[in-house]
């Protein structure tokens, strides 16, 4: 996986610094992680890495479209490796985030809605909030 991360950084014109590789590896392992989780993971292999370094790198990786920020209600944003369009199931109790693929009819409806309002759709996000099966005790 590390080779894939290094190649992805290079494809985006970025140096594959140990900090960036560690940050991306942490997020890749977790699927979705907030800054604190990323920082705690990074400190294991890079004890001198500062929280500011994590913030700076995450911000630049979002700007370069390698990471995507998932803004959550009443919680810190989580970050994920940028991938094909998808939606999220978000637990309001524990904050767990699960990816779900968008159905073609949903994407088509979003395009139709945008077009009917003379709006050029470039991307859209759908976050579905509820309670996950772990919190429901299933």
Account of the 3D structure:
With 138 residues, this protein is of the alpha+beta class. The protein folds into two domains: 2-81, Arc Repressor Mutant, subunit A (Orthogonal Bundle), CATH 1.10.10; 86-136, Dna Ligase, domain 1, CATH 3.30.1490. The protein is 46% helix and 18% strand. Helix 2 (18-30) packs across helix 3 (35-45) and helix 3 crosses helix 4.
Describe the SSE topology.
Elements: H1 2-11, H2 18-30, E1 33-34, H3 35-45, H4 51-63, E2 67-70, E3 78-81, E4 86-91, E5 97-101, H5 104-116, E6 127-130, H6 133-136
Helix pairs in contact: 1-2, 2-3, 3-4
Properties at a glance:
138 residues; alpha+beta; Arc Repressor Mutant, subunit A; Dna Ligase, domain 1; 3-stranded antiparallel β-sheet; 3-stranded mixed β-sheet; 6 helices; 46% helix; 18% strand
Task: Note the beta-strand portion.
Answer: 15-25%
For the record, what is the CATH homologous superfamily label of the largest domain?
Answer: Winged helix-like DNA-binding domain superfamily/Winged helix DNA-binding domain
> Biggest sheet: strands side by side, in what order?
1-3-2
Reading off the top of the CATH hierarchy, the class of the largest domain is best stated as Mainly Alpha
User: What is the CATH architecture annotation of the largest domain?
Assistant: Orthogonal Bundle
- The secondary structure category is alpha+beta
User: What is the overall shape?
Assistant: globular
Low-confidence stretches: none
Tell me the CATH topology of the largest domain: Arc Repressor Mutant, subunit A
pLDDT averaged residue by residue: 91
Give the termini separation: 33 Å
Order of helical and strand elements: HHEHHEEEEHEH
Summed up, the helix count is 6
Rg computed from alpha carbons, rounded to a whole number of angstroms:
17 Å
């Amino acid at each position: 996986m590390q080779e894939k991360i290094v190649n992805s950084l290079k494809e985006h014109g970025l140096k594959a610094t140990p900090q960036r590789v560690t940050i991306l590896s942490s997020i890749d392992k977790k699927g979705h992680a907030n800054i604190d989780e990323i920082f705690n993971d990074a400190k294991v292999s890079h004890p001198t890495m500062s929280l500011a370094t994590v913030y700076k790198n995450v911000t630049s990786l979002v700007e370069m479209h390698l990471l995507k920020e998932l803004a959550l209600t009443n919680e810190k944003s989580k970050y994920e490796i940028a991938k094909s369009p998808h939606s999220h199931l978000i637990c309001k109790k524990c904050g767990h985030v699960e990816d779900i693929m968008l159905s073609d009819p949903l994407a088509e409806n979003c395009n139709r809605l945008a077009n009917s309002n003379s709006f050029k759709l470039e991307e859209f996000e759908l976050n579905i909030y509820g309670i996950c099966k772990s919190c429901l005790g299933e």
